Amino acid sequence: MSNYNDTSFWFNTMDHKPTVRPSLPGNIDADVAIIGAGYTGLWTAYYLKEQDPALNVVVLEADIAGYGASGRNGGWVAGYIAGLDKYVAPLPMEKRRECCRILFENVDNIGSRLEAEGIDAHFHKGGVLYAAARYPEQEAMQRKMLAQLYEAGHTEEDCRWLNARELAEKVRLRNGLGAVYKSHCATVNPARMARGLAAAVEKKGVRIYEKTRVTSFRSGEVTTEHGVVRAPVVVPALEGYSSSVGGFGRYIIPVQSLIVATEPLSESLWKEIGLEGREAFCDGSRMVSYGQKSADGRMIFGARGGYVYGGKPRSHFSLANDEFRVREELMYDLFPMLRGVKITHGWGGSLGMPRNFAPHAIFDLEAGIATAGGYGGQGVGPSHLFGRTLADMILGRETELTRMPWVFNNASHHQALRKWEPEPFRWLTSKTIVKAFTWEENLYLKIKGSAFSKSVANNVSNALSRLMR
Ligand SMILES: Cc1cc2nc3c(=O)[nH]c(=O)nc-3n(C[C@H](O)[C@H](O)[C@H](O)COP(=O)(O)OP(=O)(O)OC[C@H]3O[C@@H](n4cnc5c(N)ncnc54)[C@H](O)[C@@H]3O)c2cc1C
């Protein structure tokens, strides 16, 4: 692929067409070898060099920086992600509040770093209209989720319930009964952030080798198609590509996620829709439809993931594929006023899903292997926090970040993570879950099923949700 405009809509908004950096010239030595130039790898490199400018850090990227999920995502920078509840819930309230503070500050820290580095990634902190409920059972579920957020250390300033009228003042979506407004969320243009960050990292003295696919790695050594890098610390930052190299594929599997973008919408259409504050939004469905208003006034709308048998990451998508029609229909269902506007872009990417549905930052001191990920489709914000955390761990610094409950210092990934079930169970489970969730939603929103069928579908979906935890 020579024209990266096909990668995602975001690549079309770059000031310049991305130029490809040179590949690894042959065998070299380094202090830290990072595999993958997405946000995780790049932020780790950034904070390593900031704290220790003399460190020799290299980043090895199979394609170009930002080619993975980091240049393709929906651009939400969320302050708190659901998977973290697992770590936070058992802690005393004081510690829970500290975790929340770290996560909330992380959003602002990204904004200030982008500003300090002169990266114009259209960072905008407008909060998020979260999990908009569209039928009473969904409202009950979302109100319960809000209660859990308060339990997890959030305050009313961090998040609060908007009733149907308050929600409609902010966004007019079909059947909106209410939503949680969370203030700690921003939106960005993901590819501008990834490419800008790569340039900032390079300015700090990190060498990024593009078109340099890693074929294997172990303690002290990374083998690529162009040579070997010997380094006492190796950082696989592969997330949705974890199954393609090394032994992480049983722990993090790739899930595909797809997005569509409309043409820039007229002022009058935006008046009908709302989102005046450029808030991010998502509905309350179990499979989550979400989006943002881009800086140039397009509706960016993502929905539903997909797992393919055997778990291979996917990087090529075409708007001509039928799978995009599903996303378009979900978008029209939420925003009927968008029917008839032109869908100009459709793309997708692979994100990493861990078996325990919670992200992690791990440093195996003995093996010299540090890694972070498992963000499950919510990694734009956390990859910054976790990159900083990995840098602290690699430099042997004990900080408030390394004391967070999602950090596994001095542990291997075998100890810290759970393995996925082998095939065909993984594939069958994912198919069953998607079918049950779609069935439940259709009964409530489309077919208007009987009370009995709704209750059966709701109970089956609840049971499957519990099974996934
Ligand atoms: C369609 C989509 C929408 C999303 N929306 C959101 C959102 O709105 N908000 C949010 O918080 N998160 C979202 N996410 C998730 C988020 O994008 C990711 O969590 C985040 O970008 C992960 O960054 P990363 O650096 O860990 O992984 P990646 O960005 O995937 O980076 C991994 C890198 O490794 C490279 N690579 C792969 N194999 C090799 C190899 N063998 N050798 C060398 N390099 C290799 C890849 O090319 C890639 O550049 C979304 C993801 C997708 C796919």
UniProtKB/TrEMBL annotation:
Q: Name one GO cellular component term.
A: cytoplasm
Question: From the UniProt record, which GO molecular function terms apply?
Answer: oxidoreductase activity
Q: Cross-referenced SUPFAM superfamilies, in alphabetical order?
A: FAD/NAD(P)-binding domain (SSF51905)
- Entry annotated with the keyword Cytoplasm: no
Q: Lineage from the top down?
A: Bacteria, Pseudomonadati, Pseudomonadota, Gammaproteobacteria, Aeromonadales
Q: Which organism is it from?
A: Oceanimonas doudoroffii
Q: What residues form the membrane-spanning segments? A: none
Database matches in InterPro entries: FAD-dep_OxRdtase, FAD/NAD-bd_sf
| FAD dependent oxidoreductase domain mapped to chain residues | 31-393
Task: Reply yes or no: does the keyword Amino-acid biosynthesis apply.
Answer: no
Q: Which Gene3D superfamilies match?
A: D-Amino Acid Oxidase, subunit A, domain 2, FAD/NAD(P)-binding domain
Matching PANTHER family: FAD DEPENDENT OXIDOREDUCTASE DOMAIN-CONTAINING PROTEIN, SARCOSINE DEHYDROGENASE-RELATED
Report what the protein is called: FAD-dependent oxidoreductase
- What are the UniProt keywords, alphabetically? Oxidoreductase
Entry superkingdom: Bacteria
